[in-house]
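[scheduler] slot 2 assigned
[scheduler] job type: sequence-to-structure, two independent chains
[scheduler] chain ordering preserved from manifest
[runner] begin chain α
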Amino acid sequence: MVLQRARKTGPFDVENSRVSIYPDYTEAVQAKRATSTEVKKALRIEGIWHTLLFPLKLKIMWDGNTHFCLSPEEAWSWLETYRTGRDDQNSHELPLTRSWRKRRPSGDQPRRDRVLRPMKTQANQGKQAAIRGATSLTELPTSDKDRTSHTEAGEMEDSSDHESVVDPLGGLPHVTRQTPEDII
């Protein structure tokens, strides 16, 4: 079946695969295809996706556009246009090459080897020193909200019916609620 269809010119499908057989695939066609080797190497070095279609049709895909070249000379002229960044249709625009698009200003992203640490302010250093110097949780400083208030008679009264304990690592108060059994 494949040999019968191979006698006909053009592509056909066999088991969901496209097969193309052309009767003029001779040494002359091979010699013409060999002339595009240097252009294909240059495109590969530039990182431009390309493929060589039969007999000598170079398909170049770059930046969402597809360009077909029928000769190596046409492909070289396209490559030179790409390298200089100029396009005949868009000559009024600023030429940008691929390497220029990849560049970023130096201050945009932080260096990966730099470790970001919190700023040490005088207030933070004081809190950390107080926490390090405290021998028990009761000696740790608490926030103004949880401290007891003094009355005019000099007596201390609690601002709430719960006790406050400060976390030794972060300095944040942890509130423990009193249950009815604790009050009695």
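[runner] end chain α
[runner] begin chain β
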Amino acid sequence: MFFKRKNINPEFEQKAEQISHESEGANTVERLQSVEISNNTQKVDVNEEKEKTVNEARKVLEHELSIKHFFHKQLLETLDLGLLSSLEKERA
């Protein structure tokens, strides 16, 4: 009742096996590429975070520096006025 399958076209089976092996190889290449892409996006995200922290730190330092310059300027003006007033007292 059951018939044994004859190997009618062995070339077709060989081609089918080659194609399946090539597709598996292509899948591994695609997987590697997707892993590389995900690694690159992670690196970009890490670099963007570092850049943001550097920019925030730079803004804080610039703000502190502007405050220091303001108070230094105020101090110099005060010292100049103090020096002028002491000179006027000596002249009088």
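[runner] end chain β
[qc] chain β: The two ends are 136 Å apart (CA to CA).
[scheduler] slot 2 released
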